Automatic annotation (TrEMBL):
Membrane spanning residue stretches: none
Pfam families the record matches: VTC (PF09359)
InterPro entries: CYTH-like_dom_sf (IPR033469), VTC_domain (IPR018966), VTC_sf (IPR042267)
Occurrences of domain VTC (ranges): 22-260
Highest classification ranks of the organism: Bacteria, Bacillati, Actinomycetota, Actinomycetes, Mycobacteriales
Name the record gives this protein: VTC domain-containing protein
Biological-process GO terms, alphabetical: polyphosphate biosynthetic process
Length: 276
């Protein structure tokens, strides 16, 4: 059942349509000492994301997986089609059940990254992704959620619920970092570059927004840089990466967290910890 919120609370602030993204993503690990030079080049050709304050903003994601880490294994095995369910929040402050979060199915089809996203209260995002019902103390009532959600969200809600049930999803791990972001100009408006600092994670205590001593999952002297484009990478960006001797890497922040806990996260064993 869905408990703890009125229909009005659920609908408040919910987007009327799910977001969809199809794009190419290229990742690099760059020494923090080299970031100022990279930053100057980006600022000469791109806008600073207006939502990105000086020093960047906090990004925290909660990933769901099966007790045997099926989503992790699919990534490691390099399956051409694979999916992840995650909850993502931006900015500082501990979340409440009513706090709005982005709920995503992120999938990889060959070399293209696809995302489908809804904005939901944290309580319902947890219930929808946790097949055990343990995170909020009750299993999600999908029919009730459909009744109080816009019709154009129904297909994605059903897909998320089916994914959670079929994979036996439960909350498994978080990733946290400080992000600065740059966006393309005019004809390159589909290009985006992000620089993520201090990547860390944990395998328990899944109330998002807490200031905890998360375990570093990427060398803290390195930043994760991503170039994200709808179609092709602008030539000047390709030239820039060559000039700065940036080497493409294959990595997943979620997988880095799992490996930081020796592929045995505490969250995969026993009962799911109730968050609220």
């Amino acid at each position: 059942m869905l408990i703890g919120m009125s229909n009005q609370t659920l609908l408040s602030g919910v987007k009327t349509a799910p977001h969809r993204f199809n794009r190419y993503e290229i990742k690099y690990l760059v020494a923090e000492s080299d970031i100022p030079a990279l930053r100057e080049q980006l600022k000469s050709r791109m806008y600073t994301d207006p939502l990105s304050p000086s020093g960047g903003y906090r990004v925290e994601s909660l990933y769901f997986d099966s007790p045997d880490l099926r989503c992790y294994q699919e990534k490691i095995e390099g399956l051409k089609f694979r999916r992840k369910y995650r909850i993502r929040t931006y900015g500082d402050g501990v979340l409440t059940p009513e706090s709005m979060v982005a709920v995503e199915i992120k999938q990889r089809v060959n070399k293209v990254t696809q995302k489908r996203r809804l904005d939901l209260p944290f309580f319902h995002a947890l219930a929808l992704g946790d097949s055990t019902g343990g995170a909020v103390g009750a299993e999600v009532d999908v029919d009730k959620l459909l009744e109080i959600s816009p019709e154009n969200q129904h297909a994605l809600i059903r897909e998320m619920a089916s994914f959670a049930k079929n994979y036996r999803l439960r909350p498994i791990a978080t990733t946290t970092y400080r992000r600065e972001a740059y966006v393309g100009v005019d004809t390159e408006s589909g290009a985006r570059v992000t620089i993520d600092h201090g990547v860390a994670g944990r395998d328990r205590d899944f109330l998002l927004g807490q200031e905890l001593d998360d375990r570093p999952t990427v060398d803290q002297q390195l930043a994760v840089v991503e170039i994200k484009c709808d179609e092709r990478v602008p030539f000047w960006l390709t030239d820039m990466t060559a000039q700065l001797q940036m080497s493409v890497i294959r990595m997943s922040k979620y997988c880095e967290t799992i490996e930081a806990f020796d592929r045995r996260p505490a969250s995969a064993a026993g009962l799911v910890e109730q968050i609220f």
